[in-house]
UniProtKB/TrEMBL annotation:
Belongs to the cytidine and deoxycytidylate deaminase family. The keyword Coiled coil does not apply. Residues 5-132 form the CMP/dCMP-type deaminase domain. This is Cytidine deaminase. It comes from the Bacteria. One of its GO terms (cellular component) is cytosol. The gene is cdd. It comes from Candidatus Gallitreponema excrementavium.
């Protein structure tokens, strides 16, 4: 998918959100910015000493939006400033995104605003329903 200036702005907001990350165990801060019909919801990873209790930046942003009454999602950007490689949503986050978004929903990520990748949730999570599995 083609990157436009709105995607770059959304990525910059995700980058800013990563500054709020609580990541003392991984030292891997991540920020997310979710563009919606009701504005932008941000999120960051929030870890826990019981490792499995941590939550990713993407799900933080989604849960903030849904719990505020907003499910009209337009695009999601993810920024992991300490990573040398682009970071895309993990499997659990892909599942959660696919709960609320249609197949063309864009996900933007990358190492810097100059090198962004934009793909649809369909590309990240192709077989998200039993219906699609039947076509295999
Ligand atoms: N993490 C995210 O928040 N989003 C991703 O897309 C990848 C991983 C977090 C989880 C954990 O707090 C840390 O990054 C290291 O995996």
């Amino acid at each position: 998918m083609k990157i436009d200036c709105e995607d770059i702005k959304l990525f910059q907001i995700a980058l800013e959100a990563s500054k709020n990350a609580y990541a003392p165990y991984s030292d891997f801060p991540v920020g997310a910015a979710l563009a919606t019909g009701n504005g932008i919801f941000t999120g960051c990873n929030v870890e826990n000493r019981s490792y499995g209790a941590g939550i990713c930046a993407e799900r933080t942003a989604i849960v903030k939006a849904v719990s505020s009454g907003c499910r009209d999602f337009k695009a999601l950007a993810v920024a992991a400033p300490k990573s040398p490689d682009p970071v895309s949503p993990c499997g659990i986050c892909r599942q959660v995104i696919s709960e609320f978004c249609n197949d063309d929903f864009p996900v933007i990520f990358g190492t810097s605003e100059k090198e962004l990748i934009k793909v649809s949730i369909r590309e990240l999570y192709p077989f998200n329903s039993l219906e699609k599995l039947k076509d295999l």
